[in-house]
Amino acid sequence: MILETALANALQKTLSDLYNITIDADTTLVQPTRKEFEGDLTIVVFPYVKLARKAPDMVAKEIGEALCASVDLLSGYNVVKGYLNLSIGDAFWKEYLRDHYQDAQYGQNGRQQEPPILIEYSSPNTNKPLHLGHIRNNLLGHSVSQILMACGHPVVQVNLVNDRGIHICKSMVAWLRYGNGETPESSGMKGDHLVGKYYVVFDQHYKEEQKELIEKGLSEDEAAQQAPIMLEAREMLRKWEAGDETVRSLWATMNQWVYAGFDATYDRLGIHFDKTYYESNTYLLGKSLVQEGLDKGVFYRHEDGSVRVNLTDEGLDEKVLLRKDGTSVYMTQDLGTAQLRYEEFKPQKMIYVVGNEQNYHFDVLKLVLGKKLEKEFGNSIYHLSYGMVELPSGKMKSREGTVVDADDLMDDMFQEAKSGTEALGKFDFPADEANALYEMIGLGALKYFILKVDPTKNILFNPAESIDFNGNTAPFIQYTHARIQSLLRKATEQGIQITDTLPTDTVMESEEKQIIKVLYKYPQVVLSAGDNYSPALIANYIYDLAKQFNHFYQETPIFKEADTGKRLFRLQISKWVATTIRNGMKLLGIDVPDKM
């Protein structure tokens, strides 16, 4: 950042001149001054005390005097023990405002010429619609993608659809048994909801058949294995893997129903992918890598015929890479898919957005590829692990039909936004504009509530709390943006040109300086969010900015101000705040309204 870099370079020269101390400017500790002390930036002088052979206070005082004499942007300093607090002059903040308040792309870096970062997220199964847990995955993957692009990195967003296996066969069997030819068109249901319905139907009948078998004297394990409906599903999977045309045809039809449903949900969430992979096309990948590992002697064939890798030296255990019958496991597929993506995109990093229940899986994947097989791209794998999302009622289970479908949740959020907005009063929009606003507020509330939390933490999602127009919520931020747009429209109506040059004698108030200081931090917040893959840093910054603006607006009225220079100054700040809110919320996948 401008200030920190300038001070680091000046400190490097000052230490050399005063004490003949040589430092690397990149390692200089320049940090924001704590709120309880006067100043803008603080330099910790303790690392230089021993070499300077003076007390910390004296070293800080001498450095402060030298910096203020040589750096024009400084207006003063104070010393608190070994901490040198520096104050930045008003001229810098005015100049920074002038240079950036009209920048519609404020906080974004130009696209760099470098290999892309590949991000896999969503990865749904085709036996059910997307649910609340998938929403966190999708929102996190999409937002991190947007943040990385804002940092200047090229990004490839990919999806791996789990479209094969026993789970989809369960839905197929139940549909054949009990569906009576029902289709999305005949039922009026989205295709993913229809297929999910039969996944639940399967589980219901499966439990009934197990109960009957147990009553006949079988153990629970025997009943689970011998239930006719489960035997039928396993036989269907065997036929699918053998290429049975009838089974494959039904599988393709039902999957197309699901894909159409997924697409509608993705569109509503604002999600898109550059490429979608399907497990039915990738599940056989990786076998050549397993053979390569056998040839190198880093894998071994177990006495039962399976192929395994021993990771006990790395603190893990033995991992099966091929079953004894030669069929693949998920790890086999992920090895091959990683190789395929590397060959396709040559990415500098491959990020997998997957829940924390898969931490072990990705530890193994990185070790097998990077250390055992010595594939350089294996070392570029990063597991963006995130916590669970729960409702006040507890955990969700797909097979029991207790999940909260993403579509139903978005509908509920629309209704929450409608009732919450209308309760505020003074609401007079045509029906189509009103519905668009409810959708914007409802989806914004959902996205923000989830993304404002550090990805590693669990979330207890409360729809009513997320829609609150006060507090750390999207509606509060959206309302702040709409308020600013109203101010800007009023200025236009009064003939005020916000792009006019600010008079040089305009005096800066403390509230004005404070909000410019907050705005100054935004580009660094974006970079930090990219480094940490954390949309929460963006979300909470934007909330703090909105709070700061509302305080600024209360303390420094705009249109009641008689001084035309001060009025223009405050409008320029307001315009810049609105741009920053809009840009920051866009990185979270959230739109902001101009009227509310």
Largest sheet, strands/sense/barrel: 5 strands, parallel
CATH topology of the domain at 407-587: Isoleucyl-tRNA Synthetase, Domain 1
The main sheet orders its strands as 7-6-5-11-12
Arithmetic mean of pLDDT: 93
Describe this structure in words.
By secondary structure, the protein is an alpha/beta fold. Among the domains are: 2-88, Arginyl tRNA synthetase N-terminal domain (Gyrase A, domain 2), CATH 3.30.1360.70; 165-254, no CATH class; 407-587, Isoleucyl-tRNA Synthetase, Domain 1, CATH 1.10.730.10. It contains 22 helices and 14 strands. It has helices at 2-19, 46-52, 56-70, 90-100, 132-150, 166-178, 184-187, 191-215, 220-226, 228-241, 245-269, 279-282, 287-296, 330-345, 359-372, 406-423, 431-451, 463-466, 474-493, 510-532, 535-555, 564-587; strands spanning 30-32, 41-44, 74-80, 83-88, 117-120, 155-161, 275-278, 300-301, 307-310, 318-322, 349-355, 381-386, 389-390, 459-460. The strands form four sheets. It has a five-stranded parallel beta sheet, sandwiched between helices. Strands 1-2-4-3 form a four-stranded antiparallel beta sheet. A three-stranded antiparallel beta sheet has the order 8-9-10. α5 (132-150) packs across α20, α6 (166-178) crosses α10 (228-241) and α8 (191-215) packs across α11. The longest helix has 25 residues, at 191-215. 39% of the residues are buried. Mean pLDDT is 93; it is low at 395-401.
